[in-house]
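WARN retry 2 of 3 for item q-0093 after timeout on previous attempt; input resubmitted unchanged.
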Amino acid sequence: MERTEKIIAELVRVYETAVSTLRSDIAAFAADGTLPPPTRRENREWCYPELRVRYQGEETRPDLARAFGRLAHPGEFSTTITRPALFSPYLAEQLDLLQDDYRIEITVTRSAQEIPFPYVLDSGTGLGTIRPQDLARHFPATELAMIGDELADGVEVDGLDETIPLALFDALRTDFSLARLAHYTGTSVEHFQRFVLFTNYHRYVDEFVDWAGKQLGQNGYTLLSGAGGLLLDEPTENARERLSDTAWRRHQMPAYHLVAPGRDGISLSRPPAPMRMMSRRSIGSPAATRCSTQSKPLSLGERAQPGRPSTGTVPIRASSQFFDSRATPMRNPTMVARTMPRIDTSRVL
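OK item q-0093 returned
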């Protein structure tokens, strides 16, 4: 346990140092046009931390019936990590399982994968007249070509180095998903709780907010967070009245979180109403046809829409089953690859 804590602490240190450096360089550029030192990229000072696991084949008591926390064969596994403090409970659980069942060596280093600047800036960051396009000339930007689900889809990926992917999604893909989550729901990802409810009816949102406002200060509930800036930390009667003062209508899936320690609270989200599918007769193409879209990929506070999903039938090379989040094992016990898994609302958030 102590060893796991040190590993996570090092992940946090490397990540927060990189984020702080990137923010400072952007602030200097916005203030007076100071360009970042060339050594930033040479020394990988803007990069995500990388978690490496070296396994030489010696095991202690592996649970082969488990679909996660497993190493299928010897080798060196790696993945980049984002927001290690947010995912620390999940990381600790997985690393403890591996260390209990296998004799492994775990190291943390700087990766070669740079953190895009939109992921370290919030909507309140003062950039003056600096445009996102100006920042993209000198700082890491969002590149959709570098973000994909090929490993999760079981598609062969060319150019893999000597290491084996340690997780299904790398840091870039995870940051992309976290940014989408905040964009669609209008709330901080840190406020999401383990128990999530969905409703299509706004009246249920009103009732939930009213009820949640009364629960504050009871049963461990400490905060009510909502789309558009709703934030209550004291018992409130008729809390729905506060909704009229927020900009919740700007978000497609406004969410509301009754926060409790250990993420044992409740989150409620209102998904958008499903759109009617157009027929071939109306639009001249099959209703199932999908198209790739982009939406301001360099815009601060917004992210690009995911493009056309990767498809294919060639399985990726064998790896392990580490960050599989209790999913059914892949047909070819291949690994779980490149950073965080899907958010498991029952265990992580």
